[in-house]
Amino acid sequence: MNTLSTLLSLVIQVYTMILLLRIWMQWARCDFYNPFAQFIVKATQPIIGPLRRFVPAMGSIDTASLLLALILCIGKVFLNPYVSITGILIPFAAVLVLIKTVGSLIFWVVLAMSLMSWISRGRSPVEYVLIQLTEPLLRPIRNLLPSMSGIDFSPMILVLLMYVINMGVMELLANVATPLAYIWGWA
Questions:
Q1: Within 52-172, where are the H helices?
Q2: Which end of the chain is more exposed for a tag (fewer CB within 10 A), N or C?
């Protein structure tokens, strides 16, 4: 049964990342005529389309996709056999899982963008979307770092920052949520 829950948790993680990519692409104003962007839209549209009738967008944030991602994270909290959270702390744990998923997604997108910059050198439509996604995150780091002979260390700094944030979120989830449940009597 543990294998089945792990597999289902992986499927939920991947679909949550696809939903978060859709939100991120709208926020970064990516080219939605790109084949990679079209894949993301087509993978999420059957669920997000009807949900948008009830959950309108708030500015540039696709709240329907965000709500579905949060619901999937709640399901992921229930599937995790190592986290024993009950009651009102389940939404708190789901938000932490969502933050960790965002951090993991940023890590993988930056890693893929860095690798593709060495391999395809700007000829891939996927690389174009990845550059559009990462540029708003890398630009402030590039402004702070001095120029280093044409070597861009900003992806490495961003990956390190995401690693620290992800580890902090996991420690918060493991060390704070469960004791709070017992202190407040929700467990």
A1: 63-79, 89-119, 125-144, 154-172
A2: N
User: pTM of this prediction?
Assistant: 0.81
In whole angstroms, give the CA distance from residue 91 to residue 98.
Answer: 10
Region 112-128: mean pLDDT is: 81
User: CB of 48 within 8 A of CB of 22?
Assistant: yes
Nearest by Cα to 103 from 43, 41, 158, 174 = 158
Q: What 3-state DSSP class applies to 61? A: strand
58: left (phi over 0), alpha (psi -120 to 50) or beta: beta
pLDDT (0 to 100) of residue 84? 61
The two three-digit tokens of residue 52, written as one number = 């948008």
Report the chain's C-alpha Rg in angstroms. 18
Rounded CA-CA distance 50/67 in Å is: 13
**Tokens describing residue 99:** 């933050």
**Which two three-digit tokens encode residue 107?**
């890590």
pLDDT confidence of residue 184: 41
| Strand, helix or coil for residue 184 | coil
